[in-house]
Amino acid sequence: MTVQPSFAQLTAEAYPKVKRNSSFKVIDSADKDYFRSILSKDEIIESQSPEELASFNQDWMKKYRGQSNLVLFPNSTEKVSKIMKYCNDNKLAVVPQGGNTDLVGASVPVFDEIILSLKNMNKVRDFDPVSGTFKCDAGVVMRDAHQFLSDHDHIFPLDLPSRNNCHVGGVVSTNAGGLNLLRYGSLHGNVLGLEVVLPNGEIISSINALRKDNTGYDLKQLFIGAEGTIGVITGVSILAAAKPKALNAIFCGIDSFDTVQDLFVKAKGELSEILSAFEFMDRGSIECTVEYLKGMPFPLQNHHNFYVLIETSGSNKIHDDEKLHAFLSSALDSKLLSEGVMAKDKADYERLWTWRKSVPPACNSYGGMYKYDMSLQLKDLYSVSEAVTKRLNEAGLIGDAPKPIVKSVGYGHVGDGNIHLNIAVREFTKEIEGLLEPFVYEYIASKKGSISAEHGVGFHKKGHLHYSRSDIEIRFMKDVKNHYDPNGILNPYKYI
Amino acid sequence: MTVQPSFAQLTAEAYPKVKRNSSFKVIDSADKDYFRSILSKDEIIESQSPEELASFNQDWMKKYRGQSNLVLFPNSTEKVSKIMKYCNDNKLAVVPQGGNTDLVGASVPVFDEIILSLKNMNKVRDFDPVSGTFKCDAGVVMRDAHQFLSDHDHIFPLDLPSRNNCHVGGVVSTNAGGLNLLRYGSLHGNVLGLEVVLPNGEIISSINALRKDNTGYDLKQLFIGAEGTIGVITGVSILAAAKPKALNAIFCGIDSFDTVQDLFVKAKGELSEILSAFEFMDRGSIECTVEYLKGMPFPLQNHHNFYVLIETSGSNKIHDDEKLHAFLSSALDSKLLSEGVMAKDKADYERLWTWRKSVPPACNSYGGMYKYDMSLQLKDLYSVSEAVTKRLNEAGLIGDAPKPIVKSVGYGHVGDGNIHLNIAVREFTKEIEGLLEPFVYEYIASKKGSISAEHGVGFHKKGHLHYSRSDIEIRFMKDVKNHYDPNGILNPYKYI
């Protein structure tokens, strides 16, 4: 069985227990006529061919595939509003879609939901270099937001490996975390305002809100991380930070995860305001990456149980390098590190990051991977990886071919208490799945962790929220969904 | 007429149009028996004497005074829960109270509401120095949280002039901003989890949540800034930052508000990661303060139209001072500043801050003050102060006695687009009030600003939200209130 064919199995076939909600109308020619009446030709694709709509129906992990025949690309908030009002009045189900880079099956249809793509809403609306307030349409690609702000000596306060595809609106809808949350904080703090079209077509906007605004409940917060289940984000106002003038990094090898934590405390104290990332990888992550980057010289002399990449960013290269050099020297002197190197120049800095950024594609390169994204108290962070690896090893599933698993590895953002668990496999099997779930979720629940640190809920984790949330929280969440979307037409079969 | 008698007029008398909600039960002896059955003697004060309960019935500005005869001080979440369930079942109105330092009449009763003080819930629950997660009861005084964290080489990510009295829970309930928001961001980003008792006594808790958690709608956000209208915050988990090892400040004189903005852009670019406060004061603010601090030597040679205090905090004193010195020199060279001084030592740093921190008591020292707290786009920030001063001047109300107004001044947090307007008066008069309101609110609405940047809504601004929020936002806010508190017993007559 090969993994990752060009088409994923239809979600409806892979999960036969999930049934289409019969209260949703099946789209007919009158509906299509209506959409044609409000949209121009380049704002609509209608097709019966799975190939033609594959990039909209299927997620990028190729794990989920829906069966929509209609994708709408409105280029204005008013058109989004008309579409939603019509769909709500006619009980047509809708899945909002940004760059379609999510990892939990949140942004593709399950059955025949209309796909509402934001990609034609791609304009920067405003930037105020004095306050740093950046306003844009939801469909602006993150890379373009970064470029625009860089040209104005600022940065978008978030970066992700999917930056070339993901949308600003999608990032906000999924409350993405990314590589620099440690420095710039979460979107709940950085998003200043949102323009949202509600399921009934009403537009609720706080896009002109200022940095401080204490006039009532902060309603916009509910849409951050709601994955398009209670409204369609059409515009975002976000606080951009001043662009750092200096960047540097060290890459080091460490014996134990306890020492990784000690090093983090030391970095917070000594690098403090210039510390912008503190990432760890275990031995297995780097073994996969060495194979994947074949030929690229490894920055360290020896191999270690753990590796850490520390990034600094600040306004003065000389000061920053002095701090980082002093930190590295004293960490080596005190034996916290077995080995460590500091980037000599920009190219070297990029090379060090390559060893971190290549872990996911490296793990995926053997055929496919099972992927979990969790947060735990730091003292417990690596334990979930150890527990999972032990379990899979005891079942005799890890090793050379024909064993199905190449490696079970852990890496992630120490600064945020966030571990990614990648099970690199030659093939997906029901046996592996059965060993992983619900074991992983139960383990996280026992440690009071989160079963989704940054990837969200989507289709994959619907029904699993009780591992991280209490009954009363889930009840109140359901109330939120019912209040905003009483017909349940927005992103159905997912989330809550 | 003297201002600030030891007792404020009863709110019920000062605002006769506000009527007691007749659906609320009047407390009787059976109710008191119940509270005595679940609370110990030091958790309850019952009194018919206005003097005895004055500090709970009256706000610290002495503008509002309620008529409660009962203050409860439960020392556990479970007791808060029992109290709320009983009050909800019996339709007894309740006002939650922290340090009672708010500025909008939010934390005192209007009529006979039971006062639910959190001051007996004053324990630190947990601190993890690795992640920086600090958990405490809501009633911990901010000063004590600062002290605890300072002893552990961290800082509470917020500071306020009322730090000796305000509670951590109160600060979260009112989404307070304060002096270092520019550096550490808002509570919506820093609060990791909350424990909240709902009006019906149910406990909803996310206090064990980790830094990253994307498992559903972020319900806790609604309680941040809700001013105790939909639940009583009993516990807070918040991200503490590493304690800066170095602090410094410059104080400077500037000709125009345009130049203040230019200087801010320069500071963001050059001081960047060590910039922790950028405060401005106008000429009038400092004139009042010079009188108030009589004898204290003024740090500058001359007087100016505007003054700016810039604070840096970082991990390396030599580096920080070098950056700050270079910034000051180049700002003087390029004539952005007319004059500027840098603190020579810790005592000097404290003295420079005294000129900023003394503005509010200075304005209040002539008898009293009208106080507004607004946010605006930076380009418009000072214009509201100019417009108000012009209006009051044209009415001939500003000048030496017997004119009622001493000065109308503006100062605040440039970094957050937040201006405080203080009208220092010899007496409060209906004529001044009539000139100020609704003029101030209408002016802010015309510039799309916020009529409450950080002080909140409370009793003072209930009914004024439409100046900053749309009809649909207000409708959704009312839905939130009705959903969580269908009997409306929690902090009635206020907010929405």
TrEMBL record, chains A, B:
Entry cofactors: FAD
KW DNA damage (keyword) present: no
Species per Swiss-Prot/TrEMBL record: Torulaspora delbrueckii
Keyword set, alphabetical order: FAD, Flavoprotein, Oxidoreductase
Family annotation (InterPro entries): FAD-bd_oxidored_4_C, FAD-bd_PCMH, FAD-bd_PCMH-like_sf, FAD-bd_PCMH_sub1, FAD-bd_PCMH_sub2, FAD-linked_Oxase-like_C, FAD-oxidored/transferase_4, Oxid_FAD_bind_N
A molecular function GO annotation: D-lactate dehydrogenase (cytochrome) activity
Any single Gene Ontology cellular-component annotation: mitochondrion
Domain FAD-binding PCMH-type: 64-243
GO biological processes: lactate metabolic process
E.C. code: 1.1.2.4, 1.1.99.40
Top-level EC class as recorded in UniProt: oxidoreductase
Pfam family, one: FAD_binding_4
Domain of life (superkingdom): Eukaryota
Gene that produces this protein: TDEL0E05730
Protein name (Swiss-Prot/TrEMBL): D-lactate ferricytochrome C oxidoreductase
UniProt cross-references to PROSITE patterns, sorted A to Z: FAD_PCMH
Similarity section: Belongs to the FAD-binding oxidoreductase/transferase type 4 family.
Catalytic activity: (R)-lactate + 2 Fe(III)-[cytochrome c] = 2 Fe(II)-[cytochrome c] + pyruvate + 2 H(+); (R)-2-hydroxyglutarate + pyruvate = (R)-lactate + 2-oxoglutarate
